[in-house]
Amino acid sequence: MYQRLIHPSKSKSFFLFGVRGSGKSTWLGQFFEHERKQQKVLWFDLLNPEIERDLLLQPSRIFEQVSAQKGIEWIVIDEVQRVPKMLDIAHLGITKQGLKFALTGSSARKLRRGAANLLAGRALTFYLFPLTHRELGEDFRLSHALQYGTLPDSLSAPDEKECIRFLRSYSNTYLKEEIQLEQLVRNMEPFHHFLSVAAQMSGQPLNFSKLGREAGIDSKSVERYFQLLEDTLVGFFLPAYHHSIRKQQLQSRKFYFIDNGIRRALAQTVDIALRVSTYEYGNAFEHWLLGEIFKLNVNCETDYRLSYLRTKDGAEIDLILSKPGKPTCLLELKSKERCTSDDTRALHHFISEFRGARAMLLCNERSPRKEGKVEVWPWREGLQQLFAD
After folding, report:
1. Same domain, yes or no, for 119 and 154?
2. Which tens digits make up the pLDDT trace of 335-372?
3. Which helix (H) or strand (E) segment is 374 a member of?
4. Are 6 and 299 in contact (CB under 8 A)?
């Protein structure tokens, strides 16, 4: 069991969100190990059809079990979005009985439409993602992260063949059934086509009309499908940078899948070996490293605003980290083991337009160095610079 980056307090209720398969139930088991031995926890797994049915019919039954078993301090409800009325029960339990709740889910969509606001301020929110390099420690392998991602089951597969089988099953069964189960899409066939096209075009500025033509669906459906992927924590949007937040939202966003294994399985390329120095390898490295920064930013609670910059003439900065009161950081992400002045040209071009900004190139070089105004960092040490322990 790897030590995850999240650290909820046991003095307050919390939500734990994450794409299914990210290890939420396993983490909760470890987090509440002592309380379970002391019989201070009631556990409700809503993936169990019988438990789900019972709580749908009579959600207040939880309090009957609390009364019958003295000393209960915590109630764990796994996949709470399947029975949103449980949020009302949690609200009553917290405010009237002094109970604490740990509520997990792979989709916040139903909760946003339901009673989630009742818990505002009464339950903190944490996210569990596919494993980061920090969490894996010495077990981290860049080649595996680029080709197969870092979902726990992909890492524990006995060989590459089984890893590929898992990822294909995950993408073909879970992702589609998860959407269907939530009754978010009526006609699944167009959504199947969309997933494949979206994975192939991941990381490109979004053009809903173009994507719609590729997938054979209308542009409004494409936009809605991307929102579903974000709501179910399969990926995240990267907005275009602008000093004005309002103007930023009017620019073309990008969308990145949260895990390379998921992305490559949906694109039907997971069984194709990545070769160093190829475009596919560089693209996988950029996807992985940008996702790593996204995950660390959330888990380390650094609260950077993430965006990218692209001009009409094609000049581009891969990632911009900005935060009030902090210097803006311009980042280029390269898989190269030896970068040249061509790789720092965009950073040198834009650095003068950001007063007091820091320009960093994260790559596979072995030692940090400086080229002009640009800091060149091995990716691991560069991330340490951005996200101290």
Report:
1. no
2. 999 999 999 999 998 998 898 999 999 999 999 999 99
3. strand 374-378
4. yes
